[in-house]
Specification:
The protein has 974 residues and is of the alpha/beta class. It is built from 32 helices and 26 strands.
């Protein structure tokens, strides 16, 4: 007997689910002899790559974790007192283990199907309540991307809402965080808005051109200002005011709402979310009631289900502003759900007393440090402060000596010009840390400290700010913030919420254009390593060598995959990547003296974020028609190019198309745009059908954003985080995003996100995916995604017509199932989506890009067995529809109209429906083995919009909530 050595643990076989036998069976089902034939009939030969991807050989999970640990180990984790919106904090281990590291939470999708998302929706209601209570404003959304982009969203919103004619100026306090000012400038320029940066105490608010202002609370240098008079004067002159606030400080400071602010923005990073070299962190946004229908992002609201029970959903569907296309005031469709859940649960666990104590401790430590340094003769400049001291040293040489000693001791401060040093303390600081800081200063000053021991903390201290800014209003009074302080109680509460949500831990989530693929555990492990999570984004470069190498490698790999010359990892969502890509095109035209090129051609089938992003980039949207077969109408394209040739900026195109087809004319399309002097932006939503087979550069695109939360395996986290880096051709590289705090060599453009590398701490996930798959593995992943999609098509097309196919009758990695003809029988596509819940599945994408359809994408990570279960569910539902069509089931009182069916529904004593309980909840045998129970019946969306409640149930309703639930469950038929 002979033996052959070969790797026994290959990661690709973990990620690409169908084994060789399954592949052969599926190929037979789709009518292809082999994979090569299927790909040849699907992907046009003219765009195929001439060679294999040149990526490093694939690593096993063990090899990757060992090598990546060494790479991350090159980062130096110093104690950070830099501040500027990023602070050390501690995520309670019970939350880390049971939410952040739990696929039941991080693999769920955006809660479009609210009935199977009640857990994270409740967690988001908690988060919104936290923000509403602390900011003192009545409306909050379920998070934005970071503080800087939240401020930029507020700028855009207020510009759209001002009633002052020709108002084009926006005042920015010089005390606003520098990265926020950078992003504000980036956003303002394309819109023709002039930023006026200065001292708020001397600002001219009577300027008729001024429509808004933003101030920081406390200021960037730590000073606390009373903005009440400033806000009143602004309002007297019809000027809106945004306050960017520190969430922890608001437990002690008078709230922005009480001071009169119109909007409050900031970051919830301090509530247990690691700094992570810049992200991801949940930016918060709260506002006055008048802005509730134009607020960016998503609001979670309370409604009722068919039984009259309380139920949560995404409220006011205009919140999804990309639906409004070019009329949107925002392109945001990604939140930071997982991070906002963490921050909200941090508040639930610690409660109002706990988080206030964190704030008190932080302030007391800052006061203690000030007193100790004052005894050494160090001048502290802030009259009022929360956590940040602004210190002035005698000379630049002394400042640099302090820096040398501090870094030798593993400590980072903020260093200003004018010999100043900033020290921002945080809730993790202990008396021993204060002693270490004092010793540093004493050594540099050549002085002796009064006592070598840790400073004795006084029994009581007052606040450093005036009485008028001392918070007296209550917050977090709801029972949810005052109940789960024992770990057992919190653990059970989190598990209760988790059990209400369907995730990839339960079944396939076949969402078209959303690519819900495996988020492998080995890819996730490094995220919580201190070498990845505990670095400040503005730490000196010598301390971030590991991160720099990770970023360099990942950028190079993404360049290889896309065929582009350069990549920026800064955009922290797909929509942000779109915007950054369009700014690169805008910068290119401007650099050539062709600022007049502002027309963006966008196919009618494009993602709604495309036209919204184009408008935000200062472009005029011109829609290009689609043909009956779903492709770009070439005649209309030529006509639009001719009509706008002198002003053509770009074409935005998705490839494969949003209809799930590789358009044969794509190279001709790109050539026509280039001949007219325009550039081609490719939306990377469908990159999972390109990697290794073709590329954006191969089709002729000039720029493309990549959804790392889709193709490259960063989990969706229940609706975020996302990462949307952009790749560009060589002549667009100089126009990639820069950063004011951490400049990027050769780039002069402004930032699009708060941190230099966006959501840096989750980049290791995509890094791990590519490293463990290798070039061949990610190419086979694309092939299998195409095979899986075509297999579903082959099984379902006799039951549900497939709307569009390619020249050889193939779909790409996704397909559109046409459900419009069921309307004749009174069955809507929503009924199918809700009925799928009874079968244990999340619905495919509903009514996009064509109303009344389902767009299905299985990904390569689903086995044939799982695909078959989904197909069996869809075929069974088709039979249920047939019963309605043929009159054997009532048009209104049927399985689909009443779906989903909860346990409370079928356990009622009186069953009056014309079908059995078993048909309702066990429609196929496999469902019995792993039943997922929706916890609410179908939700009444209109009721929730008419009665908007976006925070925890009011206290007066909370007491009898359970009693009302029991009464509602006794209804005989609903």
């Amino acid at each position: 007997m002979s033996f052959t050595f070969k790797p026994a643990d290959v990661f690709e076989t973990r990620h690409n689910a169908p084994d060789s036998a399954s592949q052969q069976a599926m190929l037979h089902a789709v009518g292809a002899e082999n994979m090569a034939q299927l790909i040849a009939e699907t992907v046009p030969a003219v765009i195929r790559l001439p060679r294999a991807l040149a990526l490093p050989p694939a690593l096993s999970e063990r090899q990757f974790l060992k090598q990546f640990k060494q790479l991350a180990g090159q980062n130096k984790v110093f104690k950070s007192y830099i501040g500027l919106g990023y602070h050390e904090t501690t995520l309670p281990p019970v939350i880390q283990r049971n939410i952040l590291e739990n696929p039941g939470w991080y693999t769920a999708y955006t809660p479009y199907q609210a009935e199977i998302a009640q857990g994270r929706l409740e967690a988001l209601i908690n988060y919104q309540t936290l923000i509403i209570d602390l900011t003192g404003l009545p409306i909050a959304n379920a998070s934005l991307l970071d503080e800087a982009t939240a401020a930029a969203e507020a700028l855009h919103l207020l510009h759209s809402q001002t009633k002052k004619k020709n108002a084009h100026k926006f005042f920015v306090s010089e005390q606003v965080l520098p990265q926020t000012i950078d992003v504000l400038r980036t956003r303002a320029t394309p819109l023709g808005i002039e930023l006026v940066v200065g001292d708020h105490r001397t600002a001219d608010l009577t300027d008729e051109a001024l429509f808004g202002a933003i101030v920081q609370y406390p200021g960037a240098n730590g000073e606390i200002f009373n903005y009440q008079e400033f806000i009143a004067n602004a309002h007297d002159n019809n000027v809106f005011v945004i306050m960017a606030a520190d969430l922890l400080a608001l437990t002690l400071l008078t709230s922005p709402g009480e001071l009169g602010a119109d909007i409050c923005v900031g970051s919830s990073q301090r509530f247990g979310v690691p700094m992570g070299f810049g992200g991801p962190h949940a930016g918060f946004f709260s506002c006055k009631d008048q802005f509730k229908r134009v607020i960016p992002g998503r609001i979670i609201g309370q409604s009722i289900d068919a039984a009259g029970n309380k139920a949560y959903r995404m409220a006011l569907q205009t919140r999804e502003q990309h639906i409004r296309r070019e009329k949107a005031t925002s392109n945001i469709c990604t939140a930071q759900v997982l991070l906002s859940v963490l921050a909200g649960m941090f508040a639930v666990y610690h409660g109002p007393k706990g988080i206030r104590q964190f704030a008190v401790n932080t302030h007391v430590m800052a006061q203690t440090l000030e007193a100790e340094l004052k005894a050494l003769g160090v001048e502290q400049l802030n009259a009022s402060y929360f956590d940040t001291l602004s210190l002035r040293l005698e000379s630049h040489e002394m400042q640099q000596a302090l820096r040398k000693e501090a870094e030798a001791a593993g400590i980072n401060f903020r260093y200003y010009s004018e010999n100043r040093v900033g020290i921002s303390l945080h809730q993790n600081v202990e008396p021993e840390d204060v002693r270490d800081l004092v010793d540093l200063f004493a050594k540099v000053l050549g002085k002796e400290v009064a006592t070598p021991d840790a400073p004795t903390l006084p029994a009581e201290r007052g606040l450093t700010w005036p009485e008028s800014l001392v918070r007296t209003s209550d917050y977090l009074t709801h029972p949810v913030f005052n109940t789960y302080h024992a770990e057992h109680e919190l653990l059970r509460y989190m598990k209760q919420l988790e059990n209400k949500d369907l995730s990839l831990a339960h079944s396939m989530i076949p969402l078209g254009s959303c690519t819900m693929k495996l988020n492998a555990t080995a890819e996730m492990i490094p995220v919580t390593w201190p070498e990845i999570g505990q670095l400040h984004p503005f730490a000196p470069a010598a301390q971030t060598i590991g991160y720099q190498q990770i970023i360099k490698n990942l950028e190079a790999w993404l360049c290889e995959v896309t065929g582009f010359a350069g990549v920026s990892l800064q955009p922290n969502s797909g929509a942000q990547g779109e915007y950054a890509g369009l700014l690169a095109i805008r910068g290119y035209h401007g650099g050539r003296g062709e600022q007049h090129r502002t027309v963006a051609l966008i196919p009618a089938s494009a993602h709604g974020t495309n036209p919204a992003s184009a408008v935000m980039a200062g472009m005029q949207v011109v829609v290009v028609k689609s043909t009956d077969d779903g492709n770009v109408d070439m005649d209309d394209l030529r006509a639009k190019i001719a009509q706008h040739a002198d002003h053509l900026s770009c074409l935005m195109v998705t490839y494969p198309s949003t209809h799930g087809v590789y358009e044969e004319t794509i190279i001709e399309i790109c050539d026509l745009i280039h001949q007219a002097g325009g550039r081609v932006y490719m939306d990377g939503a469908n990159m999972n059908a390109q990697v290794g087979l073709t590329s954006p550069a191969a089709i002729g695109a000039d720029v493309c954003h990549l959804n790392l939360h889709k193709t490259f395996c960063i989990p969706h986290g229940g609706g975020g985080p996302g990462v949307g880096p952009i790749g560009v051709v060589a002549d667009l590289v100089p126009y990639l995003p820069g950063h004011v705090v951490v400049p990027v060599e050769g780039r002069t453009s402004g930032a699009v996100s708060a941190a230099p590398w966006g959501s840096a701490s989750i980049l290791p996930i995509s890094y791990a995916y590519i490293a463990m798959m290798g070039g061949d593995g990610i190419t086979r992943a694309t092939e299998l995604a195409i095979l899986n999609a075509n297999y579903i098509k082959a099984r379902l097309e006799e039951h549900f017509p497939v709307l569009y196919t390619g020249a050889h009758g193939r779909c790409a990695h996704e397909m559109i199932l046409d459900c419009r003809h069921f309307k004749k029988a009174g069955i809507e596509v929503e009924d199918i989506a809700k009925r799928l819940m009874d079968y244990g599945f999340h619905a495919p994408t509903v009514s996009f890009p064509v109303a009344g359809t389902l767009m299905v994408e299985p990904t390569e990570s689903e086995s044939k067995e799982e695909l078959d279960r989904f197909c069996e569910a869809m075929i069974s539902i088709r039979k249920e529809i047939t019963e309605v069509e043929e009159g054997r089931a009532d048009a209104k009182d049927n399985l689909l109209k009443h779906a989903p069916h909860t346990a409370a529904t079928v356990l009622t004593h009186e069953w009056t429906r014309p079908y059995t309980r078993e048909q309702a909840v066990y429609p196929l045998p496999y469902v019995r083995n792993a039943k997922f129970w929706p916890t609410v019946s179908r939700i009444d969306s209109a009721y929730g919009d008419r009665n908007l409640i976006c925070s925890c149930t009011p206290l007066e309703e909370y007491a009898d909530e359970r009693e009302q639930l029991v009464v509602a469950d006794k209804g005989p038929s609903y």
